[in-house]
Prior knowledge:
Residues 6-208 form the Phosphoribosyltransferase domain. By secondary structure, the chain is α/β, with parallel strands linked by helices.
Amino acid sequence: MAKVYVFDHPLIQHKITYIRDKNTGTKEFRELVDEVATLMMFEITRDMALEEVEVETPVAKAKSKILSGKKLGIVPILRAGIGMVDGILNLLPAAKVGHIGLYRDPATLMPVEYYVKLPSDVEERDFILVDPMLATGGSAVAAIDSLKKRGAKNIKFMCLIAAPEGVEAMQMAHPDVDIYIAGLDEKLNEKGYIVPGLGDAGDRLFGTK
Ligand code: PRP
Ligand code: URA
């Protein structure tokens, strides 16, 4: 069964509060999403593999550690996932970025895939799939289906706000994919929005609607 991590770091929780606030405008919303993505990534990378190297300081030779060079791929679900990419690349500038375009049909709430572009060496990479919202779970489940179909084996999913329904759908469909969340909310409403959530993440990021 996939593990679910809810980040309770005070800085993350503080920023999530302002992200939720309906009075937070587009510019500030975008900046906060970027900052939370960086902070979450810092936590998620805690188990990255290291290797020992020798380095010469101005004083002496030292044994020290560097990342062992496992290839990473960041995959935002379009549109809203794009808002998390730069924050992640601040920490991991060498990661490659793929894109999966999905939108939720407003009537059926079913995901519709319209674009996929991934790094060519999919099978060799560890992937972090990102989207601010995990609501019914349909989009994340479909994006992971799409990644696995193309050869991805090791995938983590990172989102800002999740509904219990989405977490359950993910655990049923992809028990091998761990989920990293900043806020686990109460429920979905009749339109499939997370309650209390933050509204429509794409619209708030890009100033549409
Ligand atoms: C939002 C969000 C997720 C999806 C979550 O995208 O960014 O991708 O809904 O809902 P689900 O868990 O029920 O599938 P949306 O479909 O609004 O597209 P957009 O990012 O292009 O606005
Ligand atoms: N997508 C959003 O952007 N917000 C929600 O609450 C649910 C799905």
